[in-house]
Amino acid sequence: DIQMTQSPSSVSASVGDKVTITCRASQGISSWSAWYQQKPGKAPKLLIFAASSLQSGVPSRFSGSGSGTDFTLTISSLQPEDFATYYCQQANSFLFTFGPGTKVDIK
Amino acid sequence: EVQLVQSAAEVKKSGESLKISCKGSGYSFTDYWIGWVRQLPGKGLEWMGILYPGDSDTRYSPSFQGQVTISADKSISTAYLQWSSLKASDTAIYYCARLPRQQLNHFDYWGQGTPVTVSS
Prior knowledge:
By secondary structure, chain A is mostly beta strands. Chain A contains no helices and eleven strands. By secondary structure, chain B is mainly β. Chain A binds chain B through residues 1, 32, 34, 36, 38, 43-46, 49-50, 55, 87, 89-91, 94-101, and chain B through 35, 37, 44-47, 50, 59, 61-62, 95, 97, 100, 103-108, 110-113.
């Protein structure tokens, strides 16, 4: 099974800060990675797919990059509504794995 | 508008059976894979399995194979997740989610979640 690790596990940041979250796959997955945002009591929301494609309706301050084993989610200027937990996810031959999550909270 | 609407919260006892549902609307239900994801209390997301309603092709995570059954009734655009004998460790929120038609590697629409509580 392909495992996903994320770092950091949590980050404290202020409104306006740039936040970067990284995800590493245990083996190469080409560009088949996605990022989700989850707020307390809510379902996850797709932000980025295929490593760098922005889902329709998602603000452009969110961006993704990477390929192979290393992927990055960047929030260019953190907004109050961005405080949440973020998960990466990989897919390989109809097997899906989520990373453990990164909680972004208020500094 | 694409929507996945899940059944209401459940409270059950260990050993009981359960079937929860996920009704799709606003798209052609039989043309898109649909999956189930578990979230234990205060924990992360775990993929359980996916099903293609068009032909009922089903793939399970090795962690959940034999533990649950995923099915669908395409006549009513509804997918199901069922247990034959619940355990307290099945207490979690369960989400259904759709895979986009052309890219079978992420979930673009999610249901609101069904909380399941199993008491011992």
